[in-house]
Specification:
Radius of gyration: 13 Å
Order of helices and strands: EEEEEEEEEEE
Strand content: over 45%
Shape: globular
Structural class: mainly beta
Length: about 120
């Protein structure tokens, strides 16, 4: 199982960024996919998830209305579109693939929101 996140970087408050997670080594279309984040000194928290067929999504209250999760099962790729970014969105963002008791993680990508 390999999950590789990309798209992180420095962005100004109010700006946008799209994160990408490229998956390989497992049947991507059968897994629930999620984005988590971990800010310095804080616990890792769930940001959003999407079911295997994109039939259902979930967003943390703190990002609802600003972030959008999507997936392309043909490309084994997960996305997180982040709009109206705030300084409190600064964190390392992790891609996760989950099925039953199995959870797999990417290495993370840093997103820093600062002027």
């Amino acid at each position: 199982v390999q999950l590789v996140e990309s798209g992180g970087g420095l962005v100004q408050p109010g700006g946008s960024r799209r994160l990408t997670c490229t998956a390989s080594g497992f049947p991507f279309s059968r897994y629930l996919m999620a984005w988590y984040r971990q800010a310095p000194g804080k616990e890792r928290e769930l940001v959003s998830f999407i079911t295997s067929t994109s039939s259902s999504t979930y967003y943390a209250e703190s990002v609802k209305g600003r972030f959008a999760i999507s997936r392309d099962n043909a490309k084994n790729t997960l996305y997180l579109q982040m709009n109206n970014l705030k300084p409190e969105d600064t964190a390392v963002y992790y891609c996760s693939a989950q099925r039953g008791q199995e959870t797999n993680w990417g290495q993370g990508t840093q997103v820093t929101v600062s002027s």
